[in-house]
């Protein structure tokens, strides 16, 4: 994952856009490879995001 | 001094006892609030009953339950109402008024009516719900939204509660490996102190950046759930700016805490699932997006492949056609060409023969001509050779300057001249010169 804070919602929106583009029969075959590649990259990042411990907050767990 | 009439204390108390026994011969159903409740080691239970008006106590009485009645009465009450007999609840008790010379008035509790307390509770609950509704607290939490991916969770519970371990394990050790953050905030989950303990826990965490606050009772006795119908607790939940999810875990009825909360579930596992499902939903969205893109890309590629295949076979067929057309043409041409070639070849051979003959002919003619030319030129050259002339008797005369003399005019008497013969030469001295008219002179 990138150093910057990963924007999950933005990634989902981009994935949606890619799906629409790939589904569009006007899209050139030349672009498909790049789109599918980008989609795989985003999917991987999103799936990792769901499974990654985010920034720490102060624990309230009192022993 | 006149001696007064008097009776002793025991006699007085005995008379009171008698009067009371006369005045209250039977058993009476009395409505009262339990002010204190203390079962003793000897099995008897001592309590005090009270009645308040406007927040002030207006009546009080001591009461007791005999040890042989105590288990039966409490069990019946608890199973019927789901609540323990304790201070603070209003009960309808059947009492016998008893006066003891030693202890004074005491009410012996013969019976307790659970239905009354249930009704009271229901009434109280109904009033609380009506009040909360009128004040707009009922739906306040419903207007909040859980984030799509709730991550930071604060759970208010008792650490020792069995349900907490289940919940934590189920949430954090999920098979999908979703990562959530869970903070424990301890509070009393049953008893009289529970509402205020939970309220202070809510106030403590609601200012912090939590995505949700969970209230997990996490097991324990099915009794003593009244705290979750507490009005103040309901207000604290309703006004919490963070979504509150309750898991109080009582199937029989819904508590007010559940009603004012953002959501409520029955079990600790269900509570964990609520959050895990949010993650599963996201995973499903990702899967769908992947499928859409993959399928569309595959369709597109298949379509292009089909196009290519069609093109390929079209080209193949066109080439085939062209090739067979050319082959046919070629075969025909080859036939024609080979015939033509043979003819041409024969022609050329003939031409070649003729040309060779002609060339030979021409060459020999030219050579003959050349030979005769040469002979002629040779004869001419021979004829003009001075040596030939000298051999015929002519001589060459040279002057002083050794040049051939062709005239006598350049010679004077006394000049020395050279005379050249075929076989030698001599020098002479000119004695006399006679000049002749060249036209008259006949050289021959």
Biggest β-sheet of chain A, characterized?
none
Low-confidence stretches of chain B: 440-444
Number-wise, the strands of chain B total 13
Q: Which overall shape of chain A is indicated by the principal axes computed on the Cα atoms?
A: elongated
Helix content of chain B: 40-55%
Q: Name the helicity range of chain A.
A: 55-70%
Q: What structural category do the secondary elements of chain A indicate?
A: mainly alpha
Radius of gyration of chain A: 17 Å
Tell me what you see in this structure.
The complex is a heterodimer of chains A (63) and B (444). Chain A has 63 residues and is mainly alpha-helical. Chain A has 2 helices and no strands. In chain A, α1 (8-23) runs antiparallel to α2. The longest helix of chain A has 22 residues, at 29-50. The model of chain A is unreliable at 56-63 (pLDDT under 50). Chain B is an alpha/beta fold and 444 residues long. In chain B, α4 (162-172) runs parallel beside α8 (268-384). Chain B is rod-shaped, with a radius of gyration of 75 Å. The model of chain B is unreliable at 440-444 (pLDDT under 50). The A-B interface holds A 8-9, 12, 15-16, 18-19, 22-23, 25, 27, 29, 32, 35-36, 39-40, 43, 46-47, 50-54, 57-62 and B 148-149, 151-152, 154, 176-179, 181, 183-186, 204-205, 208-209, 279, 282-283, 285-286, 289-290, 292-294, 296-297, 300-301, 304.
Fold topology:
The complex is a heterodimer of chains A (63) and B (444).
Chain A: H1 8-23, H2 29-50
Helix pairs in contact in A: 1-2
Chain B: H1 9-23, E1 28-39, E2 45-53, E3 56-65, H2 70-81, E4 90-100, E5 104-112, H3 114-134, E6 152-157, H4 162-172, E7 181-186, H5 194-205, E8 212-216, H6 231-238, E9 244-247, H7 256-260, E10 263-265, H8 268-384, H9 386-391, E11 396-398, E12 416-420, E13 425-429
Parallel strand pairs in B: 3-5, 6-7, 6-8, 8-9, 9-10
Antiparallel strand pairs in B: 1-2, 1-4, 2-3, 4-5, 11-12, 12-13
